[in-house]
User: Fold this.
Amino acid sequence: MKYYDKLIFELSKPGRKGYSLPAGKWTATLSSIPENLLRSEPAPLPEVSEPDVVRHYTNLSGMNFGVDNGFYPLGSCTMKYNPKINEEAASLQGFASVHPLQPESTVQGCLQVYHELEKALSAVTGMAAFTFNPFAGAHGELTGLMVMRRYHLDRNDLKRTKVIVPDSAHGTNPASAAVCGLQVVQVKSTPEGLIDVEDLKSRLDDTVAGIMMTNPNTLGLFETEIREIAELVHGCGGLLYYDGANMNPLLGKVRPGDMGFDIMHLNLHKTFSTPHGGGGPGAGPVGVSERLAEYLPDPKVTADADGVYHISRSSHAAGRVSGFMGNFSVLVKALAYIWTLGRENIRMAGPLSVLNANYIKESLKDVYRLPVDRVCKHEFVFDGLADTSTGITALDVAKRLLDYGFHAPTIYFPLLFHQSIMIEPTETESKETLDDFIAVMSKIAEEAASDPEILKSAPHNTPVRRPDETLAATKPVLAFNG
Amino acid sequence: MAKIEEGLYYSETHEWVKPEGGEALVGITDYAQHALGNIVYVDMPEEGDEMTKDEEFGAVESVKAASDLVAPVSGEVVGCNAALEDGPGLLNSDPYGNWIVRVKLSDASELDTLMDAAAYAEFCEKL
Assistant:
């Protein structure tokens, strides 16, 4: 890898350019713009040639690490491989060149994508209807909670302001509830890492709007009491929200609708293989049961009896959450993924991701502390090294992994343990890759005893060494000071 | 091993209380600062705010996590430690020397519900 850390502004040379505009064509436009809207001095744009730009970004991209570079076991983020056929589908002219304000009749194929994807996602989740408008998972959570609130308000049930969230929840759950103006009530986990049903019972009354759960939870454990939890929450008049971030192990096997959930979101950029992280925008479609369908936000694609698609609205809709209808190209990629795999193969994703996670867990549990020693689903959590005498932290282990060419797992989450290391391998990794990772993790555990200093000062082989995180958090430099 | 100071009252959520007449100083314990890691921000209430025992009255943010401050006692906030605004790390370097809020106790008997140093040491031992 070539070390490269320039800013495009550093390449700038006055007068250099990589374009030519037709002469004399633009002056009229300038004079027609009101004086107060014109800049008083030219914008400080970089002046560069086309090869400058191409080399700059190509070299910068070489400093990146993604699923196309190597293993990326980031817990709760499902960094699965992004099949290239998805990109091919999304690049088709009929999809890539449309404008969101085109008349319905000219974008029937695009509207059909919404319709087909709604059918497919409803089939794998047991929900009745989906909105594709939210741009990401947390946006989906907020949308789902808006639906939940709207449902209660529409029945004139005004007391329901509390949302129950387990202490193992993704941080976005309480954050979304707070943004939606609801009060967060925490429910404890048992020593086995599952929701404490007795603690839950003590919190249920007629002020509860609903509960937010992820199943399997963030410890990678399936909440086996889900049926009882659903009965209890429904019994007090509340709704169940399913955080779909951990949907991968259940794909095609277990449906949130069958577990009793009323509302859920899916992260297409996790479970349905669309790019994620720095690689592309996300999509957080929200699915609901039949009785909540009318509350989904506007606008929505519907099909009439003649098979013509329309963009329609509902008078009960819980507001509007995006300008048009979400990140369309992401939806095309997710549909391409579903149709490429088909009904049978999609059922293999979950079991293979579960097998891979358990393989790593069992191979490393002698050298890393496993707080809940059970069969996990797609991910699991270590609580630091088994040998706690070395003083080596989860952060040191994560930094050292970078030296060996792996992306670090999620660390210090969930908050149930002090040294959480959350590992999610996903189904697309081969046994060879998993074995390499296991060997490196074992080697790091040995280094912790034999040469702790090399861990404390890691990473050694990356372009950026260990930043001062305290300084970065207290005195961040947020703008280019060229 | 986390340091525990004699003569203070302790809560299960790792706040300490030091009574001074009808008022009390409240801070976080050495165990808490150690678990949080480098603290980068302290979100404090304002003077005059009421805090209620067992309810959140602020938050401490570290490079690892943000954690609520849970009131070990009830009362009116009569002072906030301004030094923490520019120096949140003081809670790491000297957690017992740097209080977060000064409270006018509304019910001094609440102190009896808290742990003494020995009981808190035993509590931390089990975590």
